[in-house]
Amino acid sequence: MNSFTVEEYHARITQTKLRMQEQGMDVLLITDPANMNYLSGYDGWSFYVDQMLMIFTDRVQPIWIGRKMDANAAKVTTWLNEENILYYPEDHIHSQEKHPMDFIARVLQDIGVASRRIGLEMASYYFSALAYEKLKVNLPNAKFINASLLVNKVRIIKSDQEIEYIRRAAIIAGIGMNTAIASIQEGVRECDVAANIFRDLVSGTESFGGDYPSIVPLLPAGKNTSTPHLTWTDRQYTNDEVVIIELAGCHRRYHAPMARTLSLGRPSEEVLETSKILVEGLNVAIEAVKPGATCEEVEMAWRSVISKYGIEKDSRMGYSVGIGYPPDWGEHTASIRSGDLTILQPNMTFHMIPGLWFDDFGVEISETIRVTESGCEVLTDFQRELIIKDQIEIAM
Amino acid sequence: MNSFTVEEYHARITQTKLRMQEQGMDVLLITDPANMNYLSGYDGWSFYVDQMLMIFTDRVQPIWIGRKMDANAAKVTTWLNEENILYYPEDHIHSQEKHPMDFIARVLQDIGVASRRIGLEMASYYFSALAYEKLKVNLPNAKFINASLLVNKVRIIKSDQEIEYIRRAAIIAGIGMNTAIASIQEGVRECDVAANIFRDLVSGTESFGGDYPSIVPLLPAGKNTSTPHLTWTDRQYTNDEVVIIELAGCHRRYHAPMARTLSLGRPSEEVLETSKILVEGLNVAIEAVKPGATCEEVEMAWRSVISKYGIEKDSRMGYSVGIGYPPDWGEHTASIRSGDLTILQPNMTFHMIPGLWFDDFGVEISETIRVTESGCEVLTDFQRELIIKDQIEIAM
């Protein structure tokens, strides 16, 4: 059932321990579900309760700890021995008196690490401020160190098997985009288009199925294209409007996001022009991707194009992508933006998303790419331009 | 575009302010997206970055603050005046140096509340331990108070308009369940069943569309029914296995969850018996629901049935449900369990989910219910029993 060999998981743990030592940690408490998955294989929709993977520099296997009803999921999905799968009592769930961290602190005491240097993922979505306070109260002698992104930084270079999963995700993304473009037309409801996209993303291909993407398909239309994160409504598409489609294929939790912009009817001059500039900039940025270049250099290539046309963009134009759980498929490490000096290396993967949003419209056209030994491979495969569905032209 | 009248939003804010005063707060910083939606109408998939709704006891309107590209979404989806929609600079996103809370603290200073009593949703998924630390460092003179669940407790009694949305969600849940039961059969892949369910949940009905549920359809099968939160794989269903289907219809972010258990082929005696006990217990619990009863009493009604058969269950058998965003549709307030003395009142809504999980199998059959003026209304509508698809019998 595991997505990778036990050897690959061990290699990831070794890389994690090396970073723990560099940063002076004896213990690392992992609460980011993507990082838990990366190191243990754990996969279940249980991150809405407190759960954790504990890494100890002096133990071979991590310890998984979570809710009793999810411990069986840990047995099914991880490579860990059963004695390393623990659970806290059920009366700790959504309780005003007891907190899972009370129990977890006792486990750490029993193991004998209550006074050690403990890394915490301080910026993890599923490590609440309250959980942090509870740990501090229960472990007054521990030295806590912010370990945010420690594992994320190990994840940034993918193995060949990981790349294979992202390739499959990219194929699924293409299928979803095809369906989106085919479905969107005058009189069709946004929710029905989203439904078709979801079906295709989850079904996948005959050879491999789809997994749920960490973000739902985003479908802003008309004036709402000025803001990228609106989800669908019951509204029907009208002719003469622009629709942005941002979606991701997902396979075994690996993502390949892609965005396209569709014009229903003849696009306005500004949408047409913006799209051309955006594609020109994206192409130049893709050409700038090669091992040894920095993220900042790639962004400068993009910026050189848009500034030629008098456009400024303050948001980043890309970010590292891979394993994800809701609410995000980004890895939160390298960003393609000014000031990011991350050096590109082979098998890094990025979502290059040069969205341009103005007061009353926006355009997004994006690709998921891989840094190769010598340059850049675009993993997503779809016509890289403004898509125009002009029914009048078709009728003629 | 708003789901409710401005008067309804104002009434919710008033209820919130009353609780703030009771708990000695001048300011409340809301980071739970469901609570943000409840008070402002805000709806967008932007909770993966820091964002917030600020409530002040001495101001009429809240302030929304988030990312620049999402401020337009706030203009589209909330009832707030534009001057109350603020954004932080883009270089605060996923940065090692700058944190959105640095900016937010300055806004609070400018408003003149930096030394006031400030409520924080300490247990919110999207208020990280790091965000909390940053606020503390930037506002050394503030008095922080844990305001977890303050707004959730206002949400527990629904208005008639909210009940209407949950009714629609329940209709969508029934459509999804029908499709699930129809789709699951020998040789069909789990991912293709999930795809069909997703399409129906998102498409909704001709009269009203579906929204994305906060949790994806959960489909453990065979031995994996012993653990409830596994998601689908590419595996094909075999004959003679049990499948649990847990899903929710969603409309305008309001949820109606429902679970059923399906036997492909003739079920084992233990699955059949467990299902009967479960339905008997669920029916007795539903009969115990009425205004004035406590959550604990309802759980005792359920417990009295299963203990008759020698079964113990340590997890709760229900919880308050309503608005939700990933990763959860539960409201985290009242639970149908021993020790919960919440008094039931008309228009409270619960997901009654008496799952029974053993070492190598499990059964779930659940309903979403509403407390009425005199008793209980079951909102979901589907045959309340183990569903058996025995192809051999059909062939005879």
Describe the structure.
- Chains A, B: Residues 12-157 form the Creatinase N-terminal domain.
- Chains A, B: Residues 164-373 form the Peptidase M24 domain.
- 2 copies of one chain form a homodimer.
- By secondary structure, the first copy, chain A, is an alpha/beta fold.
- The first copy, chain A, folds into 2 domains: 6-155, Creatinase/prolidase N-terminal domain (Creatine Amidinohydrolase, Chain A, domain 1, 3-Layer(aba) Sandwich); 160-395, Creatinase/methionine aminopeptidase superfamily (Creatine Amidinohydrolase).
- Chain A is 35% helix and 21% strand.
- In chain A, the strands form 4 sheets. A 6-stranded mixed sheet of chain A has the order 4-3-2-1-5-6. A 5-stranded antiparallel sheet of chain A has the order 10-9-11-14-15.
- The longest helix of chain A has 24 residues, at 160-183.
- The first copy, chain A, is globular and about 70 Å long.
- Chain A starts with 5 loop residues before the first helix and ends with a helix.
- The model of chain A has no long low-confidence stretch (mean pLDDT 96).
